[in-house]
Design brief:
mainly alpha, about 130 residues, about 10% strand, globular, two-stranded antiparallel sheet
Length: about 130
């Protein structure tokens, strides 16, 4: 019940806008064709941005058939970090700081910090439900 309340508050107080921004960014990446590997990561982050409580971000197991979980994923993450990841992470941190200051916003600040970490290296990660 607490997860539902937190997710609803998150969704209506910024999660919807954050998720839409990630969806739109993924769409722009997909239109370039070169950005397709990052587009799928952006859409994965969008799903987490819409409804983060009760879910966690984990690294995928390296698999030769999986595009982003091996050495290629590391290279894609380095390119992402240089071109986009650092300032997206900075934006999430700047949003998290005032949330930390207001004691009631601490759970939301922690999710923004998770999103900042995820936006630094999104390729090779997946989102799963917590047990």
């Amino acid at each position: 019940m607490i997860r539902l309340i937190l997710n609803l508050l998150w969704f209506f107080l910024g999660g919807f806008a954050s998720g839409l921004a990630w969806l739109f960014g993924g769409l722009l990446l997909a239109l370039t064709v070169v950005g397709l590997p990052w587009a799928f990561s952006a859409w994965r982050i969008a799903s987490y941005s819409f409804w983060p409580f009760g879910r966690e971000i984990v690294w995928r197991n390296p698999n030769p058939a999986d595009l982003g979980a091996g050495c290629l994923g590391v290279g894609l993450n380095v390119i992402w970090l240089v071109l986009a990841g650092w300032y997206i992470a900075l934006a999430h941190i700047l949003i998290a700081v005032p949330q930390f200051v207001s004691l009631i916003g601490i759970p939301f600040a922690l999710k923004n910090v998770e999103l900042a970490r995820l936006s630094l290296a999104p390729v090779g990660r997946t989102i799963r439900d917590k047990n």
